[in-house]
Amino acid sequence: MNSETQYERLRVEVADWMRTHLTGEFACLKYRGGPGDEEAYPALRKQWERELAHGGWTGLGWPTGEGGRAFTVAQQVIFHEEYARAGGPGRMGHIGEGLLGPTLIACGSEDQRKRFLPGILNGTQFWCQGYSEPGAGSDLANIRTRAVRDDHGSWRVSGQKVWTSLAHDSDWIFVVARTDPDSRGNRGLSFLLLPLDQPGVEIRPIRQMNGGAEFNEVFFDGALAASDDLVGAPGDGWRIAMTLLGFERGMSTLGQQMQFIRELDWVIDAAHEAGVAHDAVIRQRIARAWVGLRVMRYNALRMLAGADGANQANAGAGGTLGREALIYKYYWSNWHRELGQLAMDVLGPNANLLAADDAKRSRLQGVFLFSRADTIYAGTNEIQLNIMAERGLGMPKEPRGTL
Ligand SMILES: Cc1cc2nc3c(=O)[nH]c(=O)nc-3n(C[C@H](O)[C@H](O)[C@H](O)COP(=O)(O)OP(=O)(O)OC[C@H]3O[C@@H](n4cnc5c(N)ncnc54)[C@H](O)[C@@H]3O)c2cc1C
Question: How close is the Cα of 379 to the center of ligand 1, in Å?
């Protein structure tokens, strides 16, 4: 069977599976739980993760030896496209499956892989990411959370993380903490895994401007990380943290684009309904948004094709990507932010009215409000431009403060 037929079969298989499983008790999850809607049905979305696992649809890019399916990039693209096309809900397990799992596969001990990968794969253990702190966002190396060894060899963690997405719905957190008290900058940091349900951990929600509270402050006061739950060696934290961030750009971006297509359709519908479909400027902006989507898709395919050749095992989570990958986050996040603004301009003065009784207006307002965050998380605009200049174009590194 040639690969085109194989791919077509997979496409049909995923579409069929989604049609027959995203029904009944899961029907209400259709199109829910995406960015800005993370608080929708968390318990049911966790159950959906288990449903996906039963169907064999988790760990697609992971190696088979680690419980994955070793799908090629092309196969994963097909899955994510069909998943999004069918209205598959935002994934509760994406931090575990997309970030921590591949990091443990790359850097974890055999014992850690045995203990943590199955729970991630079967949808019973949920993770959040404890990197950012009040003084350490773009400048992540400025981390102040510290961990000290107690008499039993375990680590006691104290400090504060912030903007921790879904901490309130997670079982475990991975944190980067300073284990060498005399160190500065990116030296002397370690990568630790901690259960959240323990004394010494307090999670406080942060209310966002769209009304939701998907992220949190997380306070640690002598919280315990077992000695076996340090990934790599003490002091290795920066390397491991950066390995994990390398997995952040990846396959699910193709699914995200399906959502963007849907959102652009909503904007087009709204333009008709609001009577502005004849407005020359609105029409041009809509057409430009559509062009942007096409460019985004081809760029993503080019970037992911590079990953396939370079490193099959890592490709699933965006392991080894070429220069094209440097453009990608900047491009999609700014495109999406402009779409949010376009949606508001299409709605006109009504955009400013609370839309509790108008689901269509409410979802466009949601796109606008949440898309403001797109150019902040996973690297702000300015940081992305720095990365492109320095890593992509060989410009001199920007001056940093002395450490
Ligand atoms: C929706 C959302 C979810 C998030 N989820 C998580 C999560 O789950 N876990 C987690 O750890 N973090 C999370 N974050 C935090 C995110 O990673 C940080 O917000 C981001 O890294 C920016 O850091 P900061 O907020 O401290 O801003 P700062 O780093 O203080 O930046 C402030 C401004 O200064 C600019 N700036 C900073 N440094 C430079 C420079 N060198 N050159 C030029 N300009 C610069 C920035 O571009 C920005 O405009 C999330 C953020 C958002 C918005």
Answer: 6
Pocket-testing residue among 132, 172, 387, ligand 1, by greatest number of atoms within 8 A of Cβ: 132
In a domain, 100, yes or no: no
Question: 244: Cβ below 6 Å to ligand 1?
Answer: no
Domain final residue, candidates 68, 92, 116: 92
pLDDT, tens digit (0-9, with 9 covering 90-100), for 278-291: 999 999 999 999 99
Residue 400 neighbours by CB under 8 Å, 6+ apart = none
Question: Can you spell out the DSSP letters for 333-398?
Answer: HHHHHHHHHHHHHHHGGGGGS--TT-HHHHHHHHHHHHHHHHTTTTS-HHHHHHHIIIIIT-PPPP
With a 6 Å cutoff on the Cβ, whether 383 touches ligand 1 is yes
Together in a domain, 163 and 290: no
Cα–Cα distance, 285 to 201 (Å, whole number): 47
Shortest-distance atom of ligand 1 to CA 129: 9
What residue owns the CA closest to ligand 1's atom 23?
A: 137
Span 61-68, average pLDDT: 96
pLDDT at 317: 39
Give per-residue pLDDT as tens, 125-142.
999 999 999 999 999 999
CA 373 to ligand 1 centroid distance, Å: 10
How far is residue 322's CA from residue 296's CA, in Å, rounded to a whole number? 16
CA angle, residues 265, 251, 366, in degrees to nearest 5: 35
Domain CATH number, residue 15 = 1.10.540.10
In-domain check, residue 103? no
Which atom of ligand 1 approaches the CA of 134 most closely? 26
Per-residue pLDDT at 38: 85
Check whether residue 386 and residue 253 sit in a common domain. yes
CB of residue 132 inside a 6 A radius of ligand 1? yes
* Residue that has been written with the tokens 């920066």 in this structure: 238
Q: Is residue 332 within 8 Å of 397, Cβ to Cβ?
A: no
DSSP E strand boundaries for 196-247: 201-206, 215-225, 230-231
Instruction: Give 308-319 pLDDT, tens digit per residue.
Output: 554 443 434 344
Whether residues 294 and 182 share a domain: the answer is no
User: Closest residue (by CA) to atom 52 of ligand 1?
Assistant: 377
Strands 172-178 and 127-130: parallel
The domain of 55 spans 3-92
Supply 201's token pair.
């951990």
64, 131: one domain: no
The pair of structure tokens assigned to 272 is: 């008709």
